[in-house]
Amino acid sequence: MDRVAGGSSGGSAVAVASGAATFAIGTDTGGSIRVPAALNGVVGLKPTYGLVPRRGVTSLSWSLDHVGPITRTVDDAALVLAALTGHDPRDPAPREPHPPYGEGDLTGLRVGVPRTYYFDRVAPDVESAVREAVDRLRDLGAALVDVDIPMTRYVQAIQWGLMVPRPPRTTRRRSARRPSCTPPTCASSLRRANSC
């Protein structure tokens, strides 16, 4: 095997790339919308935290989980995102959606452009494409804001420090509420983890 679909949400990205689905919904905690989209040549959008309600999604790490579209085009991603957004009072971290921007008019939108880290280790053709996109956003009326991201070398360690301990806790709670839905091998592992 010399190719991968990109891990979690990889099946969704393959379905869209192959034409088996017009769009798919992915979840992203550490790259699981963006990476499969990139590896399969489709569009993957990780929206602002809380913009798309997460009720009904099995949580991996509640403060890092996002739900977003995987589509063939940016226009399709915008349509699917518009359908997904909306206030859900039972969502753990709701955010009111921003009114849609007019066709080709991004006046009022602020876009943070990292000055550090992001462009430090990127392929030249990728950097060029990103800078062209940033210029296009400015041309459409968006206000560009230079952003310094402090301590970026610690981001992965912090992410794993937040993400790794949470799934067992979430799984234990879910298993306690609905023990009949927990496979025996998982239940055994959870009992052992609880005894530590």
TrEMBL record:
| Coiled-coil positions | none
Q: Which residue numbers delimit the Amidase domain?
A: 2-159
Spell out the Polar residues composition-biased ranges. Answer: 186-196
Instruction: Write out the ranges of the annotated region (Disordered).
Output: 86-106, 166-196
Cross-referenced Pfam families: Amidase
| Annotated InterPro entries | Amidase, Amidase_CS, Amidase_dom, AS_sf
Biased composition annotated in UniProt, kind: Basic and acidic residues: 87-98
Give the protein family.
Belongs to the amidase family.
Protein name per Swiss-Prot or TrEMBL: Amidase
